[in-house]
Amino acid sequence: MRLLALWILPLLGAGLALALPTHRIGPARIGTLVAVAAAHLVLVVTLWIVPAAPTLGGWFASDALGLVVLTLVSVLFFLTSLYTVGYLQRERPRGGRVFVSALLGFLAATTVVTLSQHLALLWVGMEATTLTVAPLIFHRHDRRSLEAVWKYLLISSVGIALALLGTFFLAAAQGDAPGRALILSDLIAHAHALHPAWLRGAFLFLLVGFGTKMGLAPMHTWKPDTYGEAPALVGGLMAGALTSCAFLGVARITEVMMAAGLALFVQPILIGFGLLSLLVAATFVIGQRDLKRLLAYSSVEHMGLLVLGLGFGGIGAYGSVLHLLNNGLSKGWLFLVAGNIVLATGSSAAADNRGLLRTLPVSATLLVLGLFAVTGSPPFGLFLSEFTILRGAIAAGHPWIAVVMLLLLSVIFIGMAALILEMALGTPAPGTERVRESPWLLIGPIVLLLIVGMLGVYIPSALNTVLTQAAVSLGGVAP
Amino acid sequence: MQTSQMIPQLVLLLIVLSNFAVLGTTRLSTCIRALAVQGVLLGILPVVLASHLSLHIAALAIGTVAIKAGILPWFLAWAIREAAVRREIEPIVGFIGSLVLGALALVLAFAIAAHLPPLTSSESLLVPVSLSTVMIGFIVLTSRRKAVTQVVGYLMLENGIYLFGLTQAASVPFLLELGVLLDVFVGVFIMGIVVFHINREFDSLDSARLTELSD
Amino acid sequence: MTWHAFAALAITLIIAPALPGIATKTKSVLTGRRGAPVLQLYFDIWKLLRKGAVYSTTTTWVFRAGPVVVLASLLGAAVLFPLDGREAVARFSGDLVAFAALVALARFALVLAGLDTGSSFEGMGASREVTFATFAEPALFLCFVALVLATGELSLSGMLGAALTATWPRTAAPLLLVAMSLFVLLLAENSRVPVDDPATHLELTMIHEVIVLDHSGPDLALILYASSLKLALFAALVMGVLVPRAAWPEPIALTVLPVGLGLVAVGVGVVESNMARLRLTRVPQLLVGAGALALFGIILLLR
Fold first, then answer.
1. pLDDT, tens only, C154-179
2. I want to staple C188 with a disulfide (CB 3.0 to 4.6 A). Which of A339, B16, B31, C195 is the partner?
3. Torsions phi, psi for C210 (to 5 deg)
4. pLDDT score at B184
């Protein structure tokens, strides 16, 4: 019941927000948004306390990996909804009627992705995320956001289409094998009865397809444009929640491949995509002049780390799952802060933002702390997860890859620090005054800061159990 | 060869020919017409492949033809009329080049299909034709500049996936309908919002003008 | 070698000049005009043969030899071709290469004669003719490869004869593709719309007509006859692939020959009435497309 309520509730909310008679985003729409987000979070918390049984013939279930992503999405969405309250006090997106509905539709779609055990259903959820996010990116209705939404729709539609082909290949691999068609647990249980040639094809198409939605290099080209043009809170949801869901898609097929004993086929491909993503991120981070585009390349980097961990296996897989959580939360945090900057100065370019520590002291402090968090400095959670992935590389017998990773991570740190510190320090342009920062706009980043900080020093045992279960399903072990 | 095998093969052959028609033409209206023809052929295919005609298959055929041969091409035709674009003037890859690429894709598709284990109880041409349609769609998508032609390429890619779905229609009943639905959503979104707005904002459906955002 | 091979050759040689007339007549009727008589080309050839020839002072023996070589090569090609659908007058293993080479030799002689005049118009036509041939010939060979694969025979008489009848039921689809490809080649090789327009005499747009501008009298008659023979050969090729006649009784096979050639000519006329001439730069694209069709046929046969 709860599994169904988790996605039907946001869907009803979206319908309600669309049906409300006014065209403005009034308190009724915002109230719906926050109420649904809160209810969603409460439902997710109950899942941790009392696990839910699979429903609808096993199509919906919350396994360890799905639960991690679902929790991430729910926390991020709730905090973003609070941020939206403050955001909408300052800015009125055109097509406001759709804005709240699309946000809630996005929540429903991502929830379906995390809960679905049927891979075609997972694909439907993924497709729905693309469609619900498009109006959010396009909210300004001008040339630049049009270009961004065009690139995003076209590239991710091709990606999602290839993923559908991959799903078909998977059905072909299943052929006469026992078990229900495309149900994850049955695929894993009878993995050795699957046809390896079709299975390899399925993996490649699903990796490229969902990898496009993740923004793995070289399918990342939509990312800087989209994140650069989307409102910051949408960018945060995409970089934090949407990419994590796409990674879940990659992880699902990886689970099947591992169970089928094709690890040796899967791992080099994952490592290759991961290293390429790090390389692309390092190349474009240097000399980047726009905060949101910088964060987009940082997202490419972290997607690379996620598949690297998956590719190393062992404790690398554990590191990957932990990193999924850390990266999602820290991306939300940084994008919300970037949103505060854009609200204050109307731009996220370095040229328009100098000396933010004086004009926006709280946001700027959060930004600098976020810089250290997102580049994997202690004591934040990302340090722990990146370190675990590096340990995974060495344990898997790839010390040189670990060295290359460290090198690229340092380059990325330098590139990001150069831009962010320039924006935070420096002298503000003459005539700029200190801006009052609304608490609605600060609560999200601060809570996220606290969570990411906590994950760096202490992982609750319940969380650790689930993370370990998820890692084991991906062919990994507990650290 | 029995006629029961010959008709599906003929339909698949015509699908490949329609792919090449899109690759080789400069005129956008011809592209759209070829796409519509392909849509009709895709609608016929489940009917001629089935051993007996069920209500489900009839509904699928009618839905496919209505969407792939009716609504979407009509929409595209409306878009080019609205924006007064007729020809793909300077493709990124020339027409001869893309024809040669298409032929290579065809060879590759058949080579790949020959290495994949055969699927039970389905037309053996289905897999290679599907793969080649996906590849040729991709070639059109990446080698043309006009937004409309790119959408045509995307829809061809979709059609290729639909063809592959036909091999799995029996084992996983919803998959094909998913593919058709994907068409509707993406069609509405890409064309409805974007094509219309690109026209309004840029006075042209040339996606090459969409170059403000870059590093 | 049998009597009906000779009979078929004789029929083809006699009716060849009627084929362009049929195409033109079809086009005229379909576009609502009366058009020239079907037998017009016979009258033209007869008229030209009675005239004297004028030779430019810049020309050499190459120019005078041209028409003769053109006709001789095409006659040679006709001898190798199984016009009755079972056997040619002469056959040997690999004669399909000889057939293609003779067709190419005819083109070569024509182009050389055109270049020999030293006129820029002829040079332009010659360059176009050769450019398109570089695209058309690979396509022709792809068609032959497909036929060889389908029938396992290496001579024209074999692959368009009994073996074709045997293989048709299994390989209908690829053979249809090959026939389509051959039909496109027919249009290109014989300077028909959409590649060239036989009705125009505007130098800047045409290919074939421009090469023969300087020919006159009996020379022109030979070239006109040779062109019609080339059209007949390609029509017989298309027809041979589409209608395997080896199993039919001899008289019927012979009667069907002129009917089939006439129908192909009608097909040419229908295309001409429906299409405009392509821009010159688009012609290679059409020929590559024809090659792609044949290649697709080969792929299907190799499966």
1. 999 989 988 898 888 888 888 999 99
2. C195
3. -75, -25
4. 75
The residue type of A199 is L
Distance of residue C293 Cα from the nearest chain B Cα, in angstroms: 8
Does residue A62 contact residue A52 with C-beta atoms inside 8 Å? yes
- B117·A229 Cβ contact <8 A: no
Tell me how far CA of residue C9 lies from CA of C3, C232, C234, C254, in angstroms. 10, 11, 14, 10
What are the domain boundaries of chain A? 267-479
Q: DSSP assignment of A273-315, as one string?
A: HHHHHHHHHHHHHTT--BHHHHHHHHHHHHHHHHHHHHHH-BH
Subunit contact B116:A176, Cβ cutoff 8 A: no
Spatial separation of the C-alpha atoms in residues A55 and A399, rounded to whole Å: 45
Chains B and A touch (3+ CB pairs under 8 A): yes
List residues in chain B touching A: CB distance below 8 A.
115-117, 119-120, 134, 138, 141, 147, 150, 154, 157-158, 160-161, 164-165, 167-168, 171-172, 174-175, 178-179, 182, 185-186, 189-190, 193-194, 197-198, 201-202, 207, 210-215
For B158, the closest of A151, A161, A167 (CB atoms) is A161
Q: A-chain residues within 8 Å CB-CB of B213? A: 144, 147-148, 151, 224-225, 228-229
Which sequence spans correspond to the domains of chain B? 3-209
C-alpha to C-alpha distance for C185 and C286, rounded to whole angstroms: 9
Looking at the DSSP bridge assignments, the partners of residue A290 are: A349
Asked if the model's pLDDT at residue A461 lies above 70, the reply is: yes
Q: Is B136 on the interface with C (CB under 8 A)?
A: no
Res. B191 pLDDT band, cuts 50 70 90 = low
Query: Which sign does the torsion angle of CA A383, A385, A391, A397 carry?
Result: negative
**At which residue do the structure tokens 């495309």 appear?**
A182
A3-30 average pLDDT score: 88
Query: Chains A, B: CB contacts under 8 A, how many?
Result: 109
The string of pLDDT tens digits covering residues C18-61 is 999 999 999 999 999 998 899 999 999 999 999 988 898 889 99
CB–CB contact A168 B161 (8 Å)? yes
> What is this structure's pTM?
0.88
